[in-house]
């Protein structure tokens, strides 16, 4: 089982993003999680197409764009143009989820759907075969640095069981409160794509932190 680390840009030093990206790449990481927030779907504002476009020439990493916005369909083409590689929308924010996934796929993008803690995995029962990624939020979205909701491990297990039963190919991504104390639990539950924010990006410790997390996932993969 391959497991990847996707550092969350939200926790990076905003005044030193180019160096932060270089540090991540030096660790051999090839996926960057970019949180987009509109201040309506979640109580915070972060990153838009212009910022993603400015970051794109600075990195060869896959840009994994997590859209925490109402009516995400209106922004999909803008993020495609900005350089996204994977676009994840929230099931709770889409009036017609199937159509939203179709729109993402129409641009040749990888498509993901995120579920808030209170949202059951059953809402995806008719779209699993369309998805490249399912994101289980292990905190309520909107802010970094929150404590992981341990009860979400059972939800991850349920999704992993559903994936095996249906022989689906989507990655199981987790986001929220992942640190050295919680990473083993989410991996044991079935997560294959681990978003890490404040536990990774720390002044003068980012490279060391990422290497520690990579060692953990490499030991699991072996």
TrEMBL record:
GO terms for molecular function: D-ribulose-phosphate 3-epimerase activity; metal ion binding. InterPro entries: Aldolase_TIM, Ribul_P_3_epim, Ribul_P_3_epim-like, RibuloseP-bd_barrel. CDD domains: RPE. Its cofactor is Fe(2+); Co(2+); Mn(2+); Zn(2+). SUPFAM superfamilies: Ribulose-phoshate binding barrel. The active site is at residues 35, 175. Pathway: Carbohydrate degradation. This is Ribulose-phosphate 3-epimerase. The keyword Manganese applies. It catalyses: D-ribulose 5-phosphate = D-xylulose 5-phosphate. Binds 1 divalent metal cation per subunit. Catalyzes the reversible epimerization of D-ribulose 5-phosphate to D-xylulose 5-phosphate. It comes from Pelosinus propionicus DSM 13327. The gene is rpe. One of its GO terms (cellular component) is cytoplasm. Belongs to the ribulose-phosphate 3-epimerase family. Its EC number is 5.1.3.1. One of its GO terms (biological process) is pentose catabolic process. It comes from the Bacteria. A divalent metal cation binds at residues 33, 35, 66, 175. PANTHER family: RIBULOSE-5-PHOSPHATE-3-EPIMERASE. Keywords: Carbohydrate metabolism, Cobalt, Isomerase, Manganese, Metal-binding, Zinc. Substrate binds at residues 8, 66, 142-145, 175-177, 197-198. PROSITE patterns: RIBUL_P_3_EPIMER_1 (PS01085).
């Amino acid at each position: 089982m391959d497991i990847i680390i996707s550092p969350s840009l939200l926790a990076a030093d905003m005044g030193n993003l180019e160096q932060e990206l270089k540090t991540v790449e030096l660790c051999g990481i090839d996926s960057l999680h970019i949180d987009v927030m509109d201040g309506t779907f979640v109580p915070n504002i972060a990153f838009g197409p212009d910022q993603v476009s400015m970051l794109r020439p600075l990195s060869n990493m896959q840009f994994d764009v997590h859209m925490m916005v109402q009516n995400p369909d209106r922004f999909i083409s803008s993020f495609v143009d900005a350089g996204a590689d994977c676009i994840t929308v929230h099931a709770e924010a889409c009036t017609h989820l199937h159509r939203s996934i179709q729109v993402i796929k129409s641009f040749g993008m990888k498509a993901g759907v995120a579920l808030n803690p209170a949202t059951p995995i059953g809402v995806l029962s008719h779209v699993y075969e369309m998805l490249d990624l399912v994101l289980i939020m292990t905190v309520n979205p909107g802010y970094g640095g929150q404590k992981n909701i341990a009860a979400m491990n059972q939800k991850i297990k349920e999704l992993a069981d559903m994936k095996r039963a249906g022989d689906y190919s989507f990655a199981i991504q987790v986001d929220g409160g992942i640190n050295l104390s919680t990473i083993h639990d989410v991996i044991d539950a079935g997560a294959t794509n681990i978003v890490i924010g404040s536990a990774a990006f720390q002044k003068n410790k980012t490279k060391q932190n990422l290497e520690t997390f990579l060692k953990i996932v490499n030991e699991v993969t072996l």
